[in-house]
Automatic annotation (TrEMBL):
One of its GO terms (molecular function) is metal ion binding. This is Hemoglobin. InterPro entries: GlbO/GLB3-like (IPR044203), Globin-like_sf (IPR009050), Globin/Proto (IPR012292), Hemoglobin_trunc (IPR001486). PANTHER family: TWO-ON-TWO HEMOGLOBIN-3 (PTHR47366). Belongs to the truncated hemoglobin family. Group II subfamily. Keywords: Heme, Iron, Metal-binding, Transport. The lineage of its organism: Bacteria, Bacillati, Bacillota, Bacilli, Bacillales. It comes from Paenibacillus uliginis N3/975. Pfam families: Bac_globin.
Amino acid sequence: MDPSLSIYDNLGGAEGIRSLVEAFYPRVQKNHLIGPLFPEDIMPVMEKQYMFLSQFFGGPALFSEAYGHPMMRARHLNFPITNRHADEWLGCMAGALEEIGVEETLRDFVLKRLSGPARHFVNTP
């Protein structure tokens, strides 16, 4: 991990984020707890996640340019999300990061960065 670069650049820019999203969603779809929260046609979700993660990790503001402010908590309020859901989501992300070959230091940093939003979406005990 190069601390002088953004997370986006450390992950390989657009290509790295795309690879991460493509490794992540098959894991999500197979997950017994969080998979059912996602639509069968996962492609639009994957595209929004690509745009969001690009922006969230310091790349181009693709999500905001297309959809306005992310307001991610509000966008997730329709779904019952528990701490266990957040754990499963983070577990899928950890597996995807490992699958695409992200080195451990960067992987840990990314997961720590994502754990805040994952916990922020929790809306059900």
